[in-house]
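Supplementary Methods. Inverse-folding protocol.

Structures were first reduced to a discrete structure-token string of length 359. This string, shown here, constituted the complete conditioning input.
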């Protein structure tokens, strides 16, 4: 098994037995793909060719459609970044040091809008299990800065298992939320960063959310809109029974809905969730047979569709779901020789406006 796999990995014989026990319920509820899903995968490339990684990448877009990719190296533990599929650069560890930031888990990228150029924020788990951040602001010409930022440790002793990723979701006014799996238990923690006061709230446990894998986090928040009842944060995670669960929080509130199981779901790795700007979203995960299963979700938390990846791609790490407007994109890792690949996973423009969530 690849060393980036999460800590609940079980023996091959046990996994086969577990898969056999859930085949009857693990198959997606519908064979129909999500609207707009492509039937083929495309190589993810940068200036030197296709991206190869021992983990998975993270990516985010700013409000000018600039996209920043970050991934763990194929032959080292460095974190590489590329803007708009251009040259890749390793992130530094500390100022003035020749060492590079290192991780055994996939980095996570968000973009926060502070009214100007904003900031790309890269979160990663260090080899010591602590959570770190690199904040990249593009130049006035929207290019990569000449000097890349060093890592700063996230406070409040935020730490997770050293082979698990940290999840992040961008919120209005340059704020954001983090989520991670406890280093000492199966509990999931979240922590809110308030950019207005430049402070982190104390980490808090999501009630009832238990996992042995890294969680995923997404937010659908429209700046300037009335946040009630439309805007929300969604947490997706792999339960200890290998089923996917979601918990939702209305933006501006501190309480979570009780974790709800995604019907018919089964996952051997961490799921990934993305939300679109019109109230829909998608979850992608590695299914019991090594291919990928997808689940469409609506703003009220309901599953609107579920299917196998129509291209039947195989992945050896947790896949990634990201969004841009009403579109969802997927990324998967087909191995160091196959590299990272992407495709459009859904186009929700054709679906009716979903109802407001129920809290």
């Amino acid at each position: 098994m690849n060393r980036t796999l999460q800590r609940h990995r079980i023996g091959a014989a046990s996994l086969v037995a577990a898969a056999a026990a859930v085949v009857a319920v693990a198959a997606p509820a519908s064979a129909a793909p999500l609207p707009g899903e492509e039937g083929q995968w495309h190589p993810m490339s940068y200036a030197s060719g296709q991206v190869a990684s021992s983990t998975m990448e993270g990516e985010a877009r700013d409000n000018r459609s600039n996209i920043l990719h970050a991934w763990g190296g194929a032959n080292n533990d460095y974190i590489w970044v590329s803007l708009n599929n251009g040259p890749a650069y390793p992130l530094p560890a500390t100022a003035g040091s020749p060492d590079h930031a290192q991780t055994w888990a996939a980095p996570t990228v968000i973009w926060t809008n502070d009214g100007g150029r904003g900031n790309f924020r890269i979160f990663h788990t260090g080899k010591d299990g602590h959570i770190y951040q690199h904040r990249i602001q593009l130049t006035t010409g929207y290019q990569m800065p000449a000097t890349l930022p060093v890592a700063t440790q996230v406070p409040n002793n935020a730490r997770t298992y050293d082979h698990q990723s940290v999840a992040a979701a961008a919120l209005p006014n340059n704020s954001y939320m983090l989520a991670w799996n406890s280093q000492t238990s199966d509990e999931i923690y979240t922590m809110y960063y308030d950019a207005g006061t430049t402070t982190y709230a104390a980490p808090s446990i999501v009630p009832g959310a238990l996992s042995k894998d890294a969680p995923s986090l997404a937010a659908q928040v429209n700046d300037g809109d009335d946040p009630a009842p439309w805007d929300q944060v969604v947490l997706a995670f792999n339960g200890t029974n290998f089923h996917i669960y979601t918990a939702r929080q209305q933006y501006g509130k501190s309480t979570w809905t009780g974790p709800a199981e995604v019907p018919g779901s089964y996952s051997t790795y961490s799921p990934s969730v993305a939300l679109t700007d019109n109230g829909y979203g998608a979850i992608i995960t590695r299914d019991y047979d090594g291919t990928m299963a997808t689940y469409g979700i609506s703003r009220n938390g309901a599953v609107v569709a579920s299917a196998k990846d129509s291209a039947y791609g195989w992945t050896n790490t947790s896949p990634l779901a990201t969004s841009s407007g009403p579109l969802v994109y997927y990324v998967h890792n087909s191995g160091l020789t196959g590299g990272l690949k992407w495709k459009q996973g859904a186009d929700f423009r054709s679906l009716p406006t979903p109802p407001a969530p129920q809290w």
